[in-house]
């Protein structure tokens, strides 16, 4: 009976009167209640009357200054609830993130936190746990994804975060994550790669690799291409699916210039087909996961170390830069989101840059000698 809820105006623990708006509800339980806009009451329970009164005073001051935010929606939802909703509504086409980055959030203890407890300190703990298992670049990607989810919740779902708790301004990112990968094909590696791919049981594997280097498409983009997406007359290809499908729906299909080398490959492939109906997929290479396994085996067979399929996009961008010297034009072909992203993929060989300087010197200073 000692902990029975009471409406007494005296604090049993101190014998002093309870502050207005504070109710004793049992040992170590003091509920403070405050009326907010619309006549609705909010309340919180504290371990002492002093803490309850402090909350009342702070809340009253915020109401008077127009700075009060009702955080109850943050108390009723967990990080897991927030992430699950984002995946359901915003990530239908982002398969890699759903398989890789999202589970790393949901499997961490941070997923159990109420959103009101999702503070920069909690996010820093999440960052440090990730850093024990993953590279700096992977940690940054997962922190940025969590920050993007929180920002979307603030902008679109009106969740009352005072600030984004996972933003880069609130949680420092690991050093060294922005290091460029500069793997390109060197010497006879291109020929060795094609020779190895030619032994694949899937005959389109060779053309798929060649197309990736000629056109600079991402693997998923090339896999979804159909014959109706190619306009040989206009030298263009149309991509219905992108990494951000909701934007593609708003803007319509993305049209990119079709490079001459890619066009030649596609015309040759079309001529080999018994049937090339508009709705047919262009490349018959099976699933992307099966292709990735084959590609890994073939690169080892060719003696190529540390080469991934995505490295071919670096190769393609660097080759295309010789044709499209204007970076804005190059970006139209490769579809990098900005110049900074484009710069990460442009990896010229140092001897090529040196050769340009030598050629320039010969053109401009030969007569003077």
From TrEMBL:
Q: Which species does the entry assign this protein to?
A: Gluconobacter oxydans (strain 621H) (Gluconobacter suboxydans)
GO MF terms here are: DNA binding
SUPFAM superfamilies assigned: DNA breaking-rejoining enzymes (SSF56349)
Q: Which PANTHER family match?
A: PROPHAGE INTEGRASE, PROPHAGE INTEGRASE INTS-RELATED
Q: Quote any Pfam family the record assigns.
A: Phage_integrase
Query: Taking every annotated instance into account, which residue ranges of this chain make up the domain Tyr recombinase?
Result: 180-361
Q: Which family does it belong to?
A: Belongs to the 'phage' integrase family.
Under what name is this protein listed?
A: DNA integration/recombination/invertion protein
